[in-house]
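Schema walk-through. Below, the input block comes first and the output block second. Nothing else is stored per chain. Lengths vary across the set, and this one has 555 residues.
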Amino acid sequence: MVEGVAQSQARVEVRQAGALIYSTVVPAGPFALTDLPLLNYSSNLDVTVTESGGAQRHFMVPAGSINADSLGQRPGYAFALGKSRNLNGTKARDPWVASASGSWTLRRSSSVSAGALYAPGYQAGSWGVDMRLSRLSGLKLLQRASRASLQSAKTGTQIEVSGIVGGLRENLSMSLSSAYQSNGYRTLDDFTQDIAGSRYTASRYRSQHTAAMAWSDARMGGLSLGYSLSSQQDGNRTQRLNFSWGKNFEFGTVSFNVERDLSARQKSRDRYGYGAYNRPTNTYYLSLSIPFGKRSVRTFASNASGYTRFGANYNEQVSDNLNYSVSAERNTRDGNNALSGQLAATPRVARVNLGYSDTGNQARAYYGGASGGLVVHSQGLTLSPYPVQDTFGIVSAAGVPSVKISTPQGPVWTDPWGRAVVPQLSAYSSNRVEVMTKTLPRNIDISNGFRQVDPGRGSVSQIDFELTRVRRVLLNARDSEGRPLPAGAYVLDASQQYVGTVLEQGQVFLSNGNENGELSVALPDGRQCVLQFSLLEQASTDTLFESADARCVLR
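--- output ---
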């Protein structure tokens, strides 16, 4: 999880190993980003928060705090062969790389893993153990070693220790992590970018430590505290502290957030290589949120770098795939008023974000973005409103369009050909995929709208739902003299098979009026009459059944 506080409507970018892995726009206030598409579990996350006025803040999430729990996963082996790809746009080597890894379960409470990687001029190996000490506590140990042949051979190691401690007291949990890295350790990204000969060598970390605590109480509310300390190879140190408290009242929710940079002011270089002085920035944020069904109003006050902002925000969830927010604020530094608006929509084939902000002094900003995925398969091409991961599925709904499907990643809708993409499935575990039956046309029947999928990693699951087009008809049947047919008489099809029964007032309900052919009614006196009725050429998809008058003529 990446947590922080935005002073205004801001753009948040997350980079790993120099590559942009996630970008989003957040409203003013605290934010938390989860389920990030990580490239690996060994590289730090570099987070940039760009405020609406252009001010930027950077902070780092240590790799040691990324919890890659291996317990509960199926043991097995993995092998890979490919060519290294540079993701940050700079000049780099692109060697062929081979890797192998395996994991083994020791009893039910621990697992062991090991791996090796080889590239011309670079070799690395690792081992790790993951143990569950109790139902709520666990410990993880991981060691990596590398040898890189650059201008001169460099060897080194990296050790990570992390743990989760639960059950100390009711509703109290803690997590700790520490990582140590020798000066000679190199990742594959370091090797391909020749970090030994660059000015970034000194900025590599020597040690990283994180601690977090969470506590909740029905009367006092919930609070969390997080701390991180990083020491670089050149002796520089960075420290960061996060604190949050929140409580639900009858009228709404009150929350208070603190983000403090405890580092000393020092000269450093940003990721583009420009020198600058880092001035620690402390942020305080207090808000009151009042819900009104699908709408909410939030007022807030924040303080950063010695000046205060006041504002209000209105948010409305119009539907499952559309929401918007409008904000207004005033800051005490220059007395400017700021307005901003944001709209987020998922129009079935993409996710779209649009926004506008006016921070005063003719400083205006517009932004827009769209993301999604595209899958080419044997039956054609299908779009997805979400990025498609390595393990996904394709839904087929018998050619019925605009059917809403609930997936682990979020809702998707079938296209004009009745297909949709399930963008992400959890490997080696059960995934629930379900048709939201309220979105089916009224003339569609479904035998089972639920599927449970247990895919292997890297697989593509074909998920088919059996849908049947039917035409339900309610007949008001009369005999040749205009009298209702007797209740209880049997209705037979052309093969003299039972179809239904005449109800009170001569009503006959047909579950599928198109497939029964000629219908007849067996009268109590032993005679039969033939039902004669006419239907519209096209059935309505908005009504559950049609009504029609029928006359029953004796054979």
